[in-house]
Write a structure and sequence with these properties.
Number of strands: 6
Shape: globular
Structural class: alpha/beta
Strand order of the largest sheet: 3-2-5-6
Radius of gyration: 17 Å
Number of helices: 9
Distance between the termini: 29 Å
Helix content: 25-40%
Oligomer: single chain
Largest sheet: 4 strands, parallel
Length: 219
């Protein structure tokens, strides 16, 4: 389904009749409605960040629902989409934390290739309708992804921004891993603990302390 080592890790799910039925439901949504991202980009996060390469997980909620925005990576938008407000604030914190100038592009593919799994809990959405697929069943799949990452021996950093992402903390029980949590970068909440939280330097400090190559956050 994905084309790398994730297929082995997720084989129990991918081969189950329940998941096959679920994918048929998703496929029918694409046939009858305008759904984002494009079908070939649903599993983009997994294709760009193989299981063995995951160093960091940034948990999002659901894809952007405007035309040409979502491409299968949490918080990321395709060019030439203007930067969403939350991503602007992520870039502001990146500058304050590590002195990296904000990118004009909202495409976070480079982070994905650095080992940052940009994981939305829900992987599809109906055009112009936020959270429209939140009850479809994607969370069963993406929660399982977090669980198998939690089981990994190599340390991982889980970055949880906002109450929704923080609700996934109960799935992360392995003391080898680091959980960084704060308010969401949305303009509605960024000043309530997101700004000044220094997630990027904290991540790299943890990776370095475990002998893992740090993330190059520059886009």
């Amino acid at each position: 389904m994905i084309g790398n080592d994730w297929d082995n890790v997720l084989n129990v799910v991918e081969s189950s009749e329940g998941f096959k039925r679920f994918l048929n439901i998703v496929d029918n949504e694409y046939k009858t409605k305008t759904i984002y991202p494009l079908k070939e980009n649903i599993f983009n996060a997994f294709k760009l960040t193989p299981y063995k390469d995951v160093k960091v997980v940034i948990v999002g909620q659901d894809p952007y629902h405007g035309e040409g925005e979502a491409h299968g990576l949490s918080f990321s938008v395709q060019d030439p989409t203007p930067l969403p407000p939350s991503l602007k604030n992520i870039y502001k914190e990146l500058y304050e934390d590590l002195g990296i100038n904000p990118s004009k592009s909202g495409d976070l593919t480079k982070w994905a290739k650095e080992g940052v799994l940009l994981l939305n809990s829900t992987l599809t959405v109906v055009k112009d309708t936020a959270n429209s697929h939140s009850k479809l069943g994607w969370a069963n799949f993406t929660d399982y992804v977090i669980k198998v990452l939690n089981q990994r021996e190599e340390p991982i950093v889980f970055i949880l921004w906002g109450n929704f992402a923080r609700s996934k903390k109960t799935l992360i029980t392995n003391p080898k891993h680091l959980v960084i949590e704060s308010a969401h970068p949305s303009p509605l909440s960024a000043r309530n603990g997101f700004f000044g939280s220094k997630p990027f330097s904290k991540t790299n400090k943890f990776l370095k302390s475990n002998g893992i190559e740090e993330i190059d956050w520059k886009l």
